[in-house]
Design goal:
This protein is of the alpha+beta class. It is built from 13 helices and 19 strands. The chain starts with a helix and ends with a strand. It binds one RNA strand of 93 nucleotides through helix 3 and helix 4.
Length: 423
Amino acid sequence: MLTLKYITENSEEVIVRLKKKNFDGATIIAQVVERDVLRKSTQTQLDNTSSEMNKLSKEIGLLFKQGKHAEASTAKERTAELKESVKVFDEKLSAIEQKLNELLVLIPNLPHASVPEGKHAEDNLVERSGGVMPTLPADAVPHWDLAKKYDLIDFELGVKISGAGFPVYKGKGARLQRALINFFLDSAREAGYLEIQPPYVVNAASGYGTGQLPDKEGQMYHCTIDDLYLIPTAEVPVTNIYRDVILDEKELPIKNTAYSACFRREAGSYGKDVRGLNRLHQFDKVEIVQIQHPDKSYESLNEMVNYVQTLVEKLELPWRILRLCGGDMGFTSAMTFDFEVYSAAQQRWLEVSSVSNFESYQANRLKCRFKGSDKKTQLCHTLNGSALALPRIVAALLENNQTPEGIRVPKALIPYMGMEIID
RNA sequence: GGAGAGGUGCUCGAGUGGUUGAAGAGGUACGCCUGGAAAGCGUAUAUACGGUGUGGAAUCGUAUCGAGAGUUCGAAUCUCUUCCUCUCCGCCA
């Protein structure tokens, strides 16, 4: 969330900038500002009353020590009223703070100045693109047919065991998964990321820390008996490592990578583009996360985008990078680049990565701060990106590389696959 | 799952109702000392919010001793709830 201080001190600017995200913030910002004034005055009242109370208590203690029991009893009587006031102010303050917090989580992050205007995905700008569009044989088929032909993925079996959206990878299909995961992890490590193996279920505090809760509760699988959530991305557990942490400036940037299975309920997204591997309830992904100094977070964003680009290039897929417009960006992001690869048989661009700078929006919730040489504590900037999500990469690899002899394995993957062709 | 012990500052560790935001030690930072270093000496070393205030120097107040609630004029210290850790037993990959 945005910091209360920033909102109250720059309320006009905040309202203007939020417009780019198609968010009309005038009313809610006004409510925040109003309640903040109330918060401050209530806090002052509470502090003053508590202060009096503390003073009086000390006096009573002193009187008792001196054996002046009568005077102590008289003093005690005076505390009753104060005590009541403290209680009233305290409850009032808590109520105000709770309401303020409820308002704050409804306000999205401010888009960076370079984020283009726009309302929908069609307004995103193509930043750059590369790779060679494949020329497919006349009888080319989409990946779900190829998966069946070479017995790589069994969607029906997944339905039997779990339900739609839980495919079973078999044989060379399973091996391809493992090859991609290892390729992505090794590449990330070589790029300076520390490999992490996080838990796949998280508590509510973690879900709240990265913003999945409370707004996106319905999108996560919830184990109610233990009140734990299946992670929708490794971003959640990895970023929460740094919840309630004050880092030393010298530790920045922190670069972590993690493979995890990802679980998404995808409630309400049935019917559209869900065939094959395009949209799943469980999928595999390698994530990269950075915690960075605010002055350098856009350098890091750039670095991360360039890094992801090397991955799609090594996989020899046609790719393009989109600079998301204000209306298509995530709630918590200040700037996002999406990566898409072309899936030739479906003749569609598939999103395979989303790289974002959250600036201090996420860090404010997480209370992830750093202390510099000036001894001042301030919020870090957090960034993350997929590097990469597997299913759509697999879809594009299968479709684009289909030949009469089988599926050609890109050079970079051959050592991981142990074969040049899937047949 | 059963029985017991415990959760205090960057770390260790004292503290069982009254100037305890918290002894002591270690670590770290700065200063002194030294040709340099060690030792030694001195100083500093949490966070959040609020008030006064300045070139975001200071200074005061409030809250925080796992978390939440309670008892009390007053709680790190007592009570309850909850989470977590450790030991023993049971079960098990």
